[in-house]
Write a structure and sequence with these properties.
The structure holds two protein chains of two kinds. By secondary structure, chain A is of the alpha+beta class. Chain A is built from twelve helices and 14 strands. Chain A has helices at 14-24, 37-42, 78-83, 85-90, 92-98, 104-109, 112-118, 126-131, 149-152, 226-232, 239-246, 263-282; strands at residues 7-9, 28-31, 50-53, 63-66, 69-73, 135-140, 143-148, 153-155, 158-159, 166-173, 179-185, 195-204, 207-216, 223-224. Chain A has a five-stranded antiparallel sheet with strand order 4-5-10-6-7. In chain A, β12 (195-204) and β13 form a beta hairpin. By secondary structure, chain B is of the alpha+beta class. Chain B has 22 helices and 28 strands. Chain B has a seven-stranded mixed sheet with strand order 3-5-1-12-9-10-11, sandwiched between helices. Chain B has a five-stranded mixed sheet with strand order 7-15-14-13-8. Classes of the chains: A alpha+beta, B alpha+beta. At the A-B interface, β2, α2, α7, β9 and α12 of A face α4 and α22 of B.
């Protein structure tokens, strides 16, 4: 488990990092915590010529408010996201989901932006980012652009990031006062999700006023269960209506078949877990 | 010298070895280094069966730091064959077993080239510069297909994929009746086929080996369970005089049978170091460990049980197919045979027949894994007893009780001819049933069923026994095993009264240093802290049969006791002289000799006083050597037979198939206990490994023979987070076969727990028409079984999903 040799730089500013990435070309990789990349390197599944470590760029860490948005630095660790009072108040779904990411060691090293840019369809933070309509702020030599989550995840381990761009921060529209739940299904604790469902809802007077549901590992990219969301809105916050809405959870999904479950089983799970996730979020 | 009153045996002492083991500040093999040490890396075949048509190592040889590159052809003349010590039948087919493939590879993961470099990094880099061309050969994976006429062959030169067929028949052996007759006359016949999936030992410390060829003796350090056997077999297989080899097992981090092996890597490091005349080390990666260290289990069990309609069993027929993998390693063929004597378990079967066919496939060889043959047997019989109970509408515990050996019937000779010396199944069961709350759980189960709850409750029973303390040498001889089953120990009395205990047992996590110290403290009346236990180096511990099969306490510690007896005999002569008494007039109590009947205040000579007197040797009785040191070799008369009652309650989520163990109660009877804390640790770890087979672990190969569970992200070893808090207790029925009354505990939990869990799962969903679910009982398998009522829910896709296993070279931008 020895990686191939590589060069390593750890710039202290985003500009330096972008420049380093641009100069190094497509053979370089950005390391943003390394909880996915290091195993890949050690197994020699990838052999980049250069690693650009974002770990020393202080500006990429932390959470702040910006009007109706929370802005989360790409290098904020899962541990910091999970404990952040702003996240808990304005993006409860991210807090509850981050709590379910891997184990405490990984949560102390791994980063929010790193997970999103890695784009593992079994990764836990993609579905919540999608469900919350997060916006990815990316920086390249040509400047900064913003990519909506719905356009950011393009395929299995692939994003809209260009080879010389870096994800710098994530803008998350506030869902203040919404309740949330992440229902993760796996065979052993601390494993990747076989299927998981991220649900956040706003209940008004016993009626579901707004609902967002994101699915993990139900396609090559995270999926928004829009038909479930539509079926929920305007319904009483009851177990029956939630179950009826959750029956749509597998619509439009194309999950993988692997050692943990075939596609049909995953589609069944999506419905059961969606019902449970929404019910838990609502508190019924 | 004040008397030591409180016995050490029975105390829950903290383990004296733990500080260094837990902190890692110790001598793991990979921590060791030598001047000028070179590092070996192994290129392994990605093909499960192929002919090597060309190897080009020139690119690797040109890489920086590379000293040498060797292929099978380079080492063919001296590598000989890896040993198999257990030719179970006279006509057993055994292929030559190279450490490095010469012209054909027979499993994915087999070594095809090695690089020796100045650093492990340079060696790893150079591996990528070796080019090998392969011609595909047909891959043999399925045992039943492998035995069909015209099947593709693993080893063409053997002409068959069948290695051997081994039979035990109680009618022929005269130990019982004719099973076919019993089945023919039976009121009830239960026929089932169970699958023992392939498992991977997954010890914590990867295997590591280092060889220094520069001394007069070639010294080999290895993370092995068996330094003594390894030394003997290096000599026997490679033609090196035995006295020119020294083997050291430094601290070893777990084995579970996975390091009860003479490995290709050990031979390769030895051969390469000798060839180069320089020290060489190799440490495997986790993935190499999973794909090339031997695997365990992997059987298909065809079972026929006959009974009367009142539940009395009348016969048992067992027809096994056992997957050997591509080669026969150290005890590969014998592992299923160790189970042959355990299918009848604690029950009074009047007729029994066991037929095992060993089959070659293009997979990693199988061999011993915690329990070795006995978990497979226990699983089969404990599942069958539940099926019998359902068939006749009887409570599963009542069926067992009707058939088990009553406590007053011991010693009891079984239908296999083994004599169980002691046991009390009633006592263990009573205690377990109380702790478990059996009746209340049954009531809850009924209530949930009637209510149609989405979470269904199931109760599983396993009333197991095992044969431990391997083994009486005469029995091993009758089974054609290549060695004896004795153990050796020596005790050295130092002039200051401190004690060195040399043991042939080779601890790799068991806590021998603590347990042996407790035993010797009582035997010699010296403080626990004054004892050092020395093991794992053929130079200091020159003789031994090492550690496996729950044998260390029942055999190894018995040798220690015998050696202590000899020390005391020698000391008594000298003490009597010092007390100016006749040898027959002194007695030894709590570490001191006194004139018999003289009272506690009489003049006493402690064993430490004697040790100092011997050192000086100024005034010893005539003809007495100035030496208390003693050694003993103990060959057990019988196996030991730990037993216990394990009860498991599972909650099955019928909407997802997820199984949660709600409670697990075990009452084990392992005889006398030396250290309850060590026992507790063994039971917990054992339970986890057995539960892991039921729920989590399986070595899966795709159709090309590639191991798809090649990382710990795919091969699911559970953690504490996945398991309940175990309720453990004991009954204590001492073994009558050894003076310590001990039975061994290393394998009990693993053997017992697997069927308890699966019985509980099947019990939870039986009303859906389910009578079996293949292990591991994954959520999907359980859910499918519930959906379809099918009895053989298995079969999974092999495509990649998300997660580590699916990451490719283009993935992972950040």
């Amino acid at each position: 488990m020895i990686p191939a040799a590589f060069d390593y730089v750890a710039p202290s500013t985003v500009d330096d990092a972008v420049r380093a990435l641009s100069e190094a070309g497509e053979d370089a990789k950005v390391i943003a915590g390394g909880q996915s990349l290091m195993p890949v390197l050690r197994m020699r599944l990838a052999a980049p010529s250069k690693l650009i470590d974002l770990g020393r760029i202080a500006a990429l860490r932390g959470v702040r408010e910006d009007g109706d948005f929370l802005v989360i630095g790409a290098m904020t660790t899962h541990y910091d996201v999970q404990r952040d009072p702003l996240v808990r108040e304005h993006a409860a779904l991210l807090a509850v989901t981050t709590d379910k990411v891997a184990d405490p060691q990984v949560r102390h090293r791994g980063t929010f932006g790193g997970s999103l840019a890695h784009a593992d369809p079994a990764g836990d933070l993609l579905a919540p980012a999608l469900a919350l309509d997060a916006e990815m702020v990316v920086r390249g030599m040509d400047g900064t652009r913003t990519v909506p989550a719905a356009e950011f995840f393009t395929d299995f381990f692939t994003t809209a990031l260009r080879p010389t761009e870096i994800l710098v921060e994530v803008r998350v529209p506030k869902t203040t006062g919404w309740s949330a739940h992440y229902e993760k299904f796996n065979r052993v604790a601390q494993a990747w999700s076989i299927v998981a469902v991220a649900a956040t809802v706003r209940v008004d007077g016993g009626t579901i006023a707004e609902a967002r549901v994101g699915l993990t590992n139900m396609a090559s990219i995270p999926i928004r269960a829009t038909s479930v969301e539509q079926a929920l809105v305007g319904q009483p916050a009851s177990a029956e209506s939630i179950r009826a809405a959750a029956a749509h959870a597998a619509d439009g999904t194309s999950p993988p078949s692997d050692g943990n479950g075939d596609a049909a089983y995953r589609q069944h799970l999506a419905q059961v877990l969606t019902s449970r996730a929404v019910a838990a979020a609502v508190g019924v | 010298m004040t008397a030591t009153i409180e016995p050490e045996v029975g105390k829950a002492r903290l383990r004296k070895e733990d500080a260094r083991l837990i902190t890692g500040r110790t001598r793991w093999t990979d921590n060791l280094t030598l001047p000028g040490l070179l590092h070996m890396a192994i290129l392994r075949s990605p093909m499960a069966h192929a002919r090597i048509t060309a190897i080009d190592t020139s690119g690797a040889k040109d890489m920086p730091g590379v000293i040498a590159v060797f292929t099978g052809a380079d080492l063919a003349g001296e590598q000989g064959s890896l040993p198999c010590a257990w030719p179970i039948t006279a006509d057993m087919k055994a292929p030559n077993a190279p450490s490095i493939a010469v012209d054909t590879v027979n499993f994915a993961g087999e070594a095809v080239a090695v690089v020796i470099a100045r650093s492990a990094y340079e060696a790893a880099d150079a591996l990528e510069r070796i080019d090998i061309d392969y011609d595909d050969l047909p891959v043999v994976l399925d045992m039943e297909a492998a035995l069909a006429d015209g099947a593709d062959l693993v080893h063409a030169d053997l002409g068959t994929n069948k290695s051997a067929t081994w039979i035990f028949d109680s009618g022929e052996a005269g130990t019982g009746g004719d099973v076919e007759k019993a089945i023919g006359e039976a009121e009830i016949v239960i026929e089932r086929t169970y699958r023992q999936q392939r498992l991977i030992p997954a010890f914590m410390e990867p295997r590591s080996v280092m060889c220094d060829p520069t001394g007069e003796q070639l010294t080999l350090w290895s993370a092995t369970q068996i330094p003594h056997i390894l030394r003997f077999l290096l000599a026997a297989q490679l033609g090196v005089p035995e006295h020119k080899i020294r083997v050291i097992a430094p601290d070893v981090g777990g084995g579970f049978g996975g390091k009860l092996q003479v490995t290709p890597e050990e031979f390769l490091v030895f051969l390469v170091a000798r060839r180069l005349g320089k020290p060489v080390k190799y440490t495997e990666s986790r993935s190499e460990s999973l794909q090339s260290g031997h695997h365990g289990r992997d059987q298909i069990q065809k079972l026929t049980l006959s009974a009367r309609s009142d539940g009395t069993v009348t016969g048992l027929k067992v027809e096994l197919l056992a997957d050997m993998g591509a080669y026969l390693r150290l005890v590969t063929p014998g592992v299923p045979i160790l189970g042959a004597f355990m299918f009848n378990a604690i029950y009074k079967f009047p007729a029994y027949r066991f037929v095992c066919t060993n089959v070659f496939t293009n997979k990693v060889p199988t061999d011993a894994y915690r329990g070795a043959g006995r978990p497979e047997a226990t699983y089969a019989i404990e599942r069958l007893m539940d099926e019998l109970a359902v068939e006749i509408g009887m409570d599963p515990m009542a069926v067992r009780e009707k058939n088990w050996i009553k406590h007053e019937e011991f010693p009891f000779t079984t239908v296999c001819g083994l004599t169980y010396d002691s046991g009390n199944y009633e006592a263990a069961t009573d205690k377990a049933m109380q702790l478990f709350g059996y009746d209340a759980l049954r009531a809850e189960q009924r209530e949930r069923r009637e209510r149609g709850d989405t979470v269904q409750l199931g109760i599983g029973i396993s009333t197991f026994t095992e044969m431990c303390g391997l083994a009486p040498s005469r029995v091993l001889g009758s089974l054609s095993y290549g060695a004896g089953g004795w153990e050796h120990a020596a005790i050295r009395m130092l002039p200051t009264g401190k004690v060195e205990v040399v043991t042939g047992s080779s601890a790799h996590g068991q806590g021998h240093e603590t347990a042996w110290s407790q035993i010797v403290a009582d035997q010699l009346g010296v403080p626990f802290e004054d004892i050092e236990v020395i093991h794992g180096d053929t130079q200091s511990s020159h003789k031994g049969m090492d550690t496996y099969g729950s044998r260390s306490l029942t055999v190894g510690a018995m040798a220690v006791v015998k050696a202590a007896d000899k020390v005391k005999e020698k000391a008594a002569k000298i003490a009597a002289h010092m007390l100016e008494a006749g040898e027959g007039d002194v007695e030894f109590m709590a570490g001191s000799f006194r004139v018999r009947g003289a009272g506690a205040d009489a003049k006493a000579v402690s064993i430490q006083d004697v040790a100092l007197a011997v050192f000086a040797a100024h005034d010893l009785p005539d003809g007495v050597e100035p030496n208390l040191d003693s050694e003993a070799t103990y060959d057990p008369e019988n196996f030991s037979f730990p037993h216990g009652t394990h009860l498991c309650a599972t909650e099955v989520d019928t909407e997802t198939g997820f199984v949660r163990i709600r409670s697990y109660v075990c009452v084990d009877d392992i005889g006398k206990v030396v250290n309850p804390m060590i026992v507790e640790g063994q039971v917990h770890g054992g339970l986890v490994q057995g539960i892991a087979q039921a729920l989590f672990e399986e070595a899966v190969h795709d159709e090309s023979g590639t191991l798809t569970t090649g990382t710990l992200a795919d091969y699911l070893v559970p953690s504490a987070a996945d398991l309940p808090s175990f309720v453990t207790d004991r009954t204590e029925t001492p073994s009558t076969s050894n003076v310590l009354g001990v039975k061994g505990v290393g394998e009990a939990g693993t053997i017992a727990s697997t069927p308890a869990v699966v019985n509980a799962i099947v019990d939870a969903v039986r009303h859906f028409g389910v009578s079996d679910i293949q292990m591991p009982c994954t959520p999907m398998r359980v859910w499918q079984a519930i959906q379809t009522g099918q009895t053989d829910a298995g079969g999974l896709g092999n495509e990649s999903g998300g997660g580590l296993g699916s990451i490719n070279t283009s993935g992972g931008a950040q």
